[in-house]
Each structure stands twice: as structure tokens, then as C-alpha cells.
Amino acid sequence: xxxALLQSAIDGLALGAVYALxxxxxxxxxxxxxxxxxxxTQYMMIGAIAAVALDAMGxxxxxxxxxxxxxxxxxxxxxxRWLVRPLIDLPTAQVNTLFLTLGLxxxxxxxxxxxxxxxxxxxxxxxxxxxxxxxLVITADRLMTVVMAIVVFGVLYLLVTYSRFGKSVxxxxxxxxxxxxxxxxxxxxxxxxxxxxxxLAGLGGxxxxxxxxxxHVTGAQFLVISFxxxxxxxxxxxxxxxxxxxxxxxxxxIAGFLFDPKWQRVLVMLLFILVIVRRPQGLFGPGRFTRISx
Amino acid sequence: MKMNKVRLFGALVGAVxxxxxxxxxxxxxxxxxxxxxxxxxxxxxxxxxxxxxDMAVExxxxxxxxxxxxxxxxxxxxxxxxxxxxxxxxxxxxxxxQVKPLHVVWAAMCSSTAVAIRQLLIDAKVVAINPTSGTSxxxxxxxxxxxxxxxxxFEWRTRDLVAYLKxxxxxxxxxxxxxxxxxxxxxxxxxxxxxxxxxxxRVLNYDERNxxxxxxxxxxREYKADFIFQASQALDEQVAFLRAYxxxxxxxxxxxxxxxxxxxxxxxxxxxxxxxxxxTAWLPGNPRPEVQAYVKKYTQRFKxxxxxxxxxxxxxxxxTAQAFEKAGSLxxxxxxxVLRTTTFTNQVYADxxxxxxxxxxxxxxxxxxxxxxxxxxxxxxx
Lengths: 294, 382
What we know:
Chain A is mainly α.
């Protein structure tokens, strides 16, 4: 019983790692733009489809992964420059962008269906191997997913904390008008940050594809959970997203082991509602990607 | 002289044009409304059906359907229902309104949409054939003479599978089933037959598109199940299930719904699925030439093996063509009478013949099959 419980928890960590990558970009975009981007998780799907197509052509996994991330980032940059930016200064920007991204999500999903077909696609596993730790089984692909998520979040943390660009992003998130005044190229910063957020989603999609499969609905299944994570962890709190993702991934799997799995999402949503009611600021409070009231 | 040549050329062009026009004019249309999903997540299951319908329509139109010496062809207009009841109702209404004259409907991929549009089709008194939905609530009871279903009932498959499992001496099973109308109906029927056979079940329902099966498989192991029954319609779920089964080193024998077909081991390898049993009417390894020709053509054209919805959909088109020819008319009443009273040739599904009962449900045998790693095919289970 205990070993099965631990096994569920360990498996949940890989799930949490993908959740974290999916939600972090959403958190960054929300922090910077106040835009609720319904298309965000579609960048996961686009990145994963690009990578799996390359993988099928014999391109090594890690190059395909990099290309997938790049495609997602590029698509994100295009979205920011030509779809979001023209609307962002309008008084109705939040509503306009909400519906715009909802429409974009449907376009991307059905576009992928038309071009890529409906059948699931699979990567040739880049790493194989099973580590037996007592009665527990840890596979190399899941371990790699968790390690990559931690490394990426570490790099993100260093970038935001120590680089000039990171400080510009924070300044833009916290007060775009003031950032503009002190000479920060707000539009350029937003463009790059949007692209990074989408690139992170793409990375999540490629890793998910390695663990499971890639279809045109790969992105859609992460939409709700990504929003839950952004709100649950605290607005603009990227570290909070990482921690909440791990908690959620592990809890989902443990709930799936202890109860009928149809209760998994119900329990997660109840947890989410409880957090919202008891801690409206999120479990970890507002992060640095949060606008400061002026 | 030059003028004569021009006249001659003109006359030739005119004659060819006239001949071509009259040749085309001889082929008349049988208007078909195809109400199935064209988008959305369910496309993973729909595409094999759509491909198979396209293939069959092309084959039949190439030959033509002969009715009283005249040549006809299927003119198919598709309406998107996305496997969503309210969209299906809209699609059915649009089809009934836009396709005139409407000669036949091919409809309803999913159980929920089949049930949703059923009354509309009955009220419209249009012959409708459902090739893929498993629900018993589409056709019947007697008194709804316009609806037909070529897919077998859950009852038949489950009855035979449970009898097989009982014969193996199994006493308790874990059921890992998708939480959908289809999955719930599969479980309900399984529970009924398992209870009759004194087999105890633990049912684990998961949300659609779930690909994380470790917790459920671990739960099945803790439950000390003699077998695990998996009910999923989605290839990605099935592959993820098997991968988790393999990763966790679980050795409990597997059984599955008829939706487990040969496309799964192509993705996972045959060793992991070896011995898994399913009750089905579709066996791609069936040596009948029609079956082998269909599998070969489908595989070559679409670079995939036909999924569980393909063969039935392919047969539905052929049965419709046969029915119109036997009816000798486009008249709805003549068509439905022929469908009720005639034995048809099934091209690829089941054992080669099909007959509808008084409820409009096609009758044919199912078989319990096992995935066999040695022959890389499904064989009759021993």
C-alpha cells in the first residue's frame, strides 16, 4: 500500500513538471499584460507537433525539442506583435484579448487537426532505462522531465533576478508607464517575454509528448489546470507556480490511487476553491510579476 | 477548304460536348446527409470512419448504383456534429432542411448524439443508418421503422467476453473505463454480466483524454484483480495505459472493449499487449479477400491501419448501395422495407452477411479475440 502510494506520488512529479512549464508562461503573460490568454496552452501543442514531426524525420530528440520550443516562441512573438499589441492600450483590452485568444485557440487547434491529422504521434524515446529504488520504479524519461523543469526554472530565476533584461521585465510588469519613462523599451521587453512564456509552454508540450502522446488536443487539456495554477500560486509568482504544480501533480495521482479517479479533478477543484476563498492572494502571495498600484 | 475544316472541327467539338453532357446526365444523384463530427477531440476516432466512407463512396460511384437500368451515384453532404448533442441537433436540422430531396442519412458517431437526433430523424421519416454508435437507444423499439444500426450491441460483446473470463476461472476484475456516455454504458453492461457470472468488479472511471494511468493500475494491483478490463475509445489513452502497465511491471491479464484494435500495438509493440482479449466483430486478419483488400487499400492510402470505426462505416455505404439497388427506387418506404427484409453482404465487418431485426439492429456474431505477439495479429482466443 505504502509503496503504491509513493509510486503514485513519484509519477505525479513528472506530471507536475509539465504543469509548471505550461502555467509559468501564462503567469508571465498575465503579469506583464493583464491578458487572459486562452490560446496559451495551444503553444504547447504547436511546439510538440513541430518537434514530433522533426523526430519522425530522424532529427535527434534534443534538436527537435529545441526547434519545438523555438516554433512556440516564434508563434508567441507573432501573436504579441500583431494580435495583442494593437489592442493592449484600448480601454476594453482585457475583454478584447480574452475573446481574441479564445478564437486564436480554436484556430490553432483546428488548424493542427487539418494539417497534422487527428491521430496521436509519439517520439522515439531519447532516454530509456528504469531505475528500481526498492519497490519503486523511476523511468529515465520521467526523471529527465523533472530535472529539465527544475533546471529551466533555475535559469528563469537567475535571468529575472540578475540580468538587465530580467529587471526590465519586472519593471515593465510592475509599472509599464514608469518603465517607459526610465527608458526601458517596453514593447520589445513584452515581445521577448511573451515569446519566452510561449517557448516554455512549447517545452512543456514536447516533454509531455515524450511521456505520453501528441495530438491536436494536447494543449486544450492543460488550459484549465494552467489557469488554476496561476491563480492558486499567487498572481505573477513563478516560484509559486513551480511549487503548486508539484503539489497538484502529486495530489492528483495520490487521489487517483486512493479513490475512484473520476474524483481526481473534483478534488483538485475543491482544493482550488478552498485556496481562493481562504487565500485570495494565492498560496504564495503576489509575485514579482505583479503590477504595483500607482 | 479551310472553312470546311473549321466547320468539321466545330461539329466534332459539338458532338463530343453533347456526348459528354448526356453521359453525365445519365448519372443521377442519391443525396446523402452525413452527420458526423468534422472537428474536435473526437476526430481521433472519427477519421477512420470518414476515410472508410470516402473510400467506399469512391468505389461505388466508380461503378455506379443501378436502379431500374439507370446509373446513380452517392452525392454526400457532410454536417458537423462534433460528438456534442446540441451541435448534433443543429446539424440534423440543417441536413433535413438543406439536402433536398434527402434520400438517406448516415449519422451519429457517438451514443450521446445518436440519442439526441433520433427523434428528429423519426419525425422526418427519413431512413437513417448508424454505423458506429454502440448505444441500444438509437434503434428500436419496434414502431420506429426508419432507423437502422450496423454496429453490434454492447450486450453481445460483453456477454461473450464475460463468458470467456468466467471460463478462465477469474473471480475479480478491475475495470478502468473512460467516464463518458460510451464508457458508462460499457461498464453498466459489464457489471450486469459479471454479476450473473459471480465476478466481482472494482470500477475506476477516469476523465476523457487522461493519459496518466499509474494510480489506477496500482489500485488494480492492490485490489489483487484477476484481470483488468480497459474501456477507452481513444488511441492515445490506450497507448498510455499500456505503457504504464509495462513501466510498472504489472502482469495481470488484460481484457478490453472492442475499441482495442491493431493500431495499438503498432505504437506500443506487440509483446506488451500479447494475450489481451477483446470481443469484437472486426478482425483485420480475417482471410476473406474483401477484408484483406480493404485493409491493404486503407493502409496504403492513409498510412495507418483502419481503427474500430472504419470497417463498419465502410460496410454501411456498401449496404446502402445494395439496398437502393434491391429496392429499385429512391423511395423511402421502398428503401426501409428492403432494409428490414433482406440479408445483405457485409464487405468487411463480421462474418460477411448482415440482417436487420425488427428494431433495425443488425444481427451478426461477435468473437472473442486475443492479441498475439507471435503472429503480430489478433487471433481467436483460446
